Model the fold of this input.
Amino acid sequence: MRYFGRALAGLATVALAGGAIAGAPADSPVAKSPSEIAKAFGARENIQQISLSPGGDKVAMLMPLAGRGMALFVTNLAGDATPKPIMKSSGDTDQLRDCRWSTDTRLICSISLTASDGSVRLGYSRTIALNDDGSNGKVLSARTSSDALDITQNGGSLIDWGAGGTGSVLMTHYYVPEYSTGTHTAETRRGLGVDLVDTATMSRKVVEQPREGAFAYISDGQGAVRVMGLQSTDGNGYDGNRITYLYRQPDSRDWKPLSTVRINGNIYSGFVPEAVDRDLNVAYGFESTDGRVALYVISLDGSMTKKLIASRTDVDMDSLISVGRRERVVGAGYVTDRRQVQFFDPELNALQAKLAKALPGHIVTFVDASADENKLLLFAGSDNDPGRYYLYDKKSHSLGEILPARAELAGMPLSTVKAITYQAADGTTIPAYLTLPPGSDGKNLPTIVMPHGGPASRDEWGFDWLSQFFAARGFAVIQPEFRGSAGYGDQWYNKNGYQGWRTAMSDINDAGHWMVKSGIADPGKLAIVGWSYGGYAALQTSVVDPDLYKAIVAVAPVTDLESLRDESRNFTYFPQRDAQIGHGPWVVEGSPARNAERIKAPVLLFHGDRDTNVWINESRLMASKLKSAGAKVELVEYKGLDHQLDDDSTRADMLEKADAFLRASMGMKL
Done:
């Protein structure tokens, strides 16, 4: 563990023990075996999540243990900077997910848990508080009773870290009625409310009574709940397609209408509030205008004055940038070929410009801040640098490195990633990212087309462990931002990648054709690899064009759209999934498991048996259908793992098996 820094002259250069930051680790490359390379890339990031204490002299870090576990480490930056473990999770049925400071000596952590309810696997969350030495651990989530008439999956969300004085937080609380036979003390309330909780004494006070239909609350960062979201329900208990947002004026308890949002699948129409600024007395929120998502503010003084704050004509605005314990909004984010930020805060805008000069070629992200915002926790990474965490001190203008994100890759040659475009069959220009093997001339290479997951997602320029692994093994990789991807506006989204699968698959296959036509790809060594929706695309593109790819790797893939619909039938979001998939001939035609006889290339499937995003039954169905059709297929099941396969050894095994499979299938040297 290192923590060091020197005063910087206007941040023109960065002097760190170990040399200036470069595009790749400074260590000399060392030849490694395929197994060692898979192990290095399969290792999870050294820091899964990090938080800075209010005083700015300590960090709390979630760091992976060998295998699938996780541990909470605390480091005193003002002391010897040695990380000290204070809590761990197994990664089997429990996993630490998020830890933040409530005071300089007290932490709040969220834990995810999984359990099986008959044939349905359910996810739960609970929140705990503990001292920074691991002592005095307490459950912060509200007590649940064995007499409750329903289960409580969500153990509460933290919505305000500066409420009611030092160490107190605002936290949502889902109330469930209890059996009342033979007692007068049973809980009768139902719905989501908000409690004020002292993280030291564990005392709690109701500040928002539970309300049926409530699903979200937004505070002003200083202890006042200013916005509430209510979602309609149908007669069967499913979520409806309408959300109503209400707001309060300052010093008032009365709710007033703010906006109405309509939902169709995963498309939202209307102003969706994200944050409240108490000083400006406005709500920040996103809304689609002229086919692009833009950022607006609405005055909360009763006038409802609406003002456009940030928009683009080419891409969607997709995120709010906030800093500090009050989560003060300082900017908005979007992605063109690279992620960008439009800052509203002049000081941070100037600092960002200085950091860009000090860390050339890197994207710098503000991660956290001390209570007075004089110390900032930063992350800087690039395409061929997995990144490092830093602490910046405004007063001394010093920048100190805390820890690299992927120490296992030190000395490993990494590839640059280039934003490109290619022409689809109908003439549409499709953006993509191209990664070539380190030192390659870019000609006649074994090539992988790698569609992203989602489908309401997109790739971004930066370090990608999956594409970098295959590049390190000699493959060219293209990641197409096909129509159906998010971030490019309503028309590009094209309903979604399921109902609009024909266009999406055509765009993805055209990426393969372009790689061959451009001379980058050897046509006899063209494969496709994808995860989740990307796995679906890897299979369905081969239904559309059976002769294009010579090998298919699909991780946790959707294989049957009706099965995907049925998997959500016992959950409240079923109507949204139902609308996303829709009803029509495209459901059968767009399900690779129902068209398995068209697939010619050998197929390798990977799936975790605790996947709640896409059930493992979909891969089992696909394997069965391919075998019945006489195709070559192998399914690798990983016990006790979910959609992300968050296990170092499992990921290494998956990478090594996938690499060997691709080479064997395409006649390459192992």
